[in-house]
Amino acid sequence: MFKNLMNKIKIPFLTYSRPKFIKMFSNITRPLDGKTAIVTASTDGIGLATAHKLACDGASVMISSRRKHNVERALSILKKEYGDEKIQGVVCHVSNKDDRNNLIQETIKLFGGIDIFVSNAATNPTSGSILDCDEEIWDKIFDVNVKSAFFLTKEIVPHMISRGGGSIVYVSSIAGISPMPMLGVYSVSKTALLGLTKVIAADLAEKNIRVNCVAPGIVKTKFASILTENESLSKYILQTVPMKRFGKTDEIGSVISFLCSNASSFITGEVIVASGGMTSRL
Question: What's one GO MF term for it (predicted)?
Fold first, then answer.
C-alpha cells in the first residue's frame, strides 16, 4: 500500500536535486590543477610526503634523488596513485650542475614548464662542536643545504617568469631558528636559508613569484631517526615540544602545498614554523 502511495506522489526534490548536486561538485578543481612542481630529495620523508600532497592537490610533480634505486622505488609508490601523466622522476645530485640542469630540462620536456620549486635537499654528515668541523665537511653541508637551493632557484626562475609567476619553498628547520646542540654546522646552514628566503622574495615579488620557507620541528623521518628513536633522547626532546609528540611528514607537506597555492597568494618572504609549539624566535 505504501509503495502504491509513493508511486502516485511526485516529489520534485527527489527527482531533480541529486543530479544538480553531483554536477555542482564535479566542477570543483583542486588548488594546484595545471601546475608543475619540482621537489628535490623527494623519495623519502618530508620530500616524498610533499610530492604526495602536491599531486593530490592537482600538480604534476617531478621527484628526484641522488640514488637511482630510491627514485625508482618512490615512482612505483606514487604512480600507482597518480599515474605517469602526473608523476615522473630523475636522478639528481643537487651539488652537481649537470644534474641540476638535467632535472630542469626533463621537467620541461615531460610537463611543459615549471610553476613550483620545493628545495628539500639536505645533508648532515657530522655532529659535535662546530669548532671541530673541518673545511671539507663544512663545504659539503653548505653545497647541498644552501648553495644548491640558490642555484636551482636561479636556473628555474626564468622558466617561472615565462609562465607568468610561480612559488618557491625552501625547507629549513627549527634548528635554523634555535640551533641544536651537536648540530652546529647544520643549524647554521638552515639559518642561511631564512636569509635566502628574504632576499630572493624581495627580488622576485614584482615577477609574481612568491618565495617562502618552512621550518619543521622534529619530524619522524629516517633523517631524524637518531633523535626520535633513542628512547632517552626522544623523551628529553619532547619536553621542549608543547604538543608532546613528533611531527608527521604529511603535516609538513600540507604546509608546503598551502604555500604553493593561491590560498597563500599574499604571503612571500615568510618563514612558517611547524614544530608543535617549540620555541621559534631568534
Answer: carbonyl reductase (NADPH) activity
